[in-house]
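Hi there,

I know you've been waiting on this one. I reran it after we fixed the sequence typo, so this is the corrected version. Both the input and the resulting structure follow.
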Amino acid sequence: MYFETVTTGFETILNDGHAYSYSAKSPTQVTIRLRNRTKIEAVPQNGPDNAMLNSKNITELIKKHHEPEPFSGIVSLTQGDEVVYQQGFGYAIRSEKIPNQVNTRFQTASGCKIFTGVAICQLIERGKLALDTRLTDCVDIEFPNFSPAITIRHLLTHSSGITSYFEEDLNPDYESLWRDLPQYRVRNPKDFLPLFQHKAMKFQPGARFEYNDGGFILLGLVIEDVSGRKFADYIQEEIFAPAGMHDSGYFAADQLPARTAYAYIKNEDGSWRTNFFAVPIVGGPDGGAYVTAPDMVRFWKTLKQNKFLSVQMAETLLSPHMTTSEETPHIAYGYGVWLERQKRKTKKYFVEGYDPGVALRSAVYPETKMSLTMIGNTSDSLWALFNQLEKEFGLQ
């Protein structure tokens, strides 16, 4: 094995075996580990392209991507326990020209629904819940128009039939939600209830898949009632801490810790504004946690090491429970996680999130033991670039 760090004049710091390249004047931070060539070539046919694993090639490809704007965020590629490539692009805080770095915290939007899914599965394994437990049996809140047949399973798989607080097909402008309910008042799962608590059912529970943020808000309320802890505290203590995700959390936008990127929305005149007034001030069970790319790697590793859940429950979480009828790669859904399936096998499982100023996709490819994580602090440049990198690395 050989180790290469591309610094291009940066100061290189070694810390616990990780190489960091940093410059106060540069918008990049790089961490690169390359396997020996024979091992790379031994990866199955869907594995990475050797030529593309040259750090310079990867960086040049990303920097050439300008549609609809240059990518701003972090790219992380790992294989097994090895970091193949990590680099930040663009600015965490534009006005101060503070660069995005490997340890920069980013918003995740819906990319953190899997934390809620893991938490529910933990409570099931501890005998506090069952997949077929009814919502009405574990939450003491009135939902006058909800079906009494809604279960935990329905909520986990977006098949409950409730009307969500955000109906994207009717109104794709998430920012507009907070005109009547000021976003600075939304700090806990119960604060979302006025947006959907009294709405009518759209279909009977279990009838079909329909992506639903409100269902995960309800799961957060279940976690609070069953565990006796606040939702964010439960995730911090039972998921972030055991995984060593020390940079992650449900931070308030008016009390952000160091190394946190602002999320940016592009105005019609080409200028930029933050998303402070476009999303809830504190994230919840349906989305909005802050993570770093290395922390997402730690999460996947801890999940696969069965430190959150038993082998059987972890496999259940990552198994297809609903066919989505959506386009590739969103073919099937587990418990808080998307699955791309081919020939009755999972090609990749992944999470993703999209909010004003926020984009995340983090995917694991079981055959090659690789993971690719991209987190952006703008909304739109990540998606085509993620697909391009998958193609270049032979992961599609």
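Quick highlight: Confidence is low (pLDDT under 50) at residues 1-46.

Best,
R. S.
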